[in-house]
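Per reviewer request, we include the raw input and output of the structure prediction for the construct analysed in the revised manuscript.
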Amino acid sequence: MLIRILYTLLLALASPFLLFGLYKSKPNKPKFGRRWKEHFGITPKLEATERPIWIHAVSVGESIAAIPLIKALKKHDPAQPILVTTTTSTGAEQIAKLGQLVEHRYMPIDFGFAVKGFLKSTRPKQMLIIETELWPNTLRTVHDSEIPITVVNARLSEKSCKNYAKVQPLFNLLVPCLDKVLCQTESDAERFKRLGVEKNKLFVTGSIKFDIQISEEVKEKGKALRTELGIKRPIWIAASTHKGEDEQMLEAHKKILESHPNALLILVPRHPERFDNVFELCQKLGFEAARRTSRTEVTESTQVYLGDTMGEMLVLMGAADICFMGGSLVGDKVGGHNVLEPAALGVPIINGPSYFNFKEIVDSFVKECGLIIVEDRLTLAKAIIQLIESPEKCIAYHTAGSKIVNMNQGALKNTILEVLN
């Protein structure tokens, strides 16, 4: 009890700063508008009268990961209402694309009064948390309301495990509240076990991200974009880049242009508030750049194409010959991003040396020669040039990547069985 009180006091002190970051106006970031009240538990009642399954997906990445699960649950029982919460407005934007399939609300801040207000309005019968978004007061309040809590697609890197271990007394408050933890890998399950989660609560179901299905509509849009950008020119994409990586991508592209002057880089920053700054950086460094949102014609002289839209990553990847996955060349700040999307599209993948958030997945790709690891912008440029000049290598890498994805599918089925059991 004392630990929870101390935690809540610290949260109260920190919350103004957290809320400032959440609500701060940024370019290309959707507004919360009047819905900011939902973060304080002032939540509109749901349209459905039946109690919903509540899925929490904190932001964009978790929201995208939740979509196959949502569709599978609705396929199993079309009448079952589903409520999805996100913390961010960018996550809400992704969920909005599901239309009438779900209802969306913003996640209340981790104060007991806010969570109680939310539960009173929404009356969920079950809570599913995507990956590892664990808040002490939320879990305790939901658990005390006799609502089962399952962590879905749970992952816990060694770095995160060590960080949780530093606040073990606080983590000990979470463990009794969890009914099931559906882990991506045996390593994830072992780390949760080290932190005190009972063995009978741990299940290895695999990563639902392996069950990615690329729709024909997305594939056709990718082909159409490729036609627009240029069929015969080499095109590579730098996906989900972070601050400090964009410069490296552009430096690598300069090197590539020396031997392949018609090459095109599709540059896609991870966060929409950085779109304008990255475009200005392209111009400052002397590149002829075009923005997707401007819809201006892309010519042979266009060197960089800025992917400044949300929710179109698969389309942009589908137009490329090679994909570099961002978040992996900025030291240990980020830990990489999901390499399964380009693999499912059959696009050869290059990754930086930092990928602790997806260690098991990336290691399996490296082991099966389904991915290239580079150390810096120079080795990145070299790897891309080699792939451009060796179509047979591209085929070998995308064949290996596609094989790994196909071999590991089935997690969604396993997850649904545990969720509905």
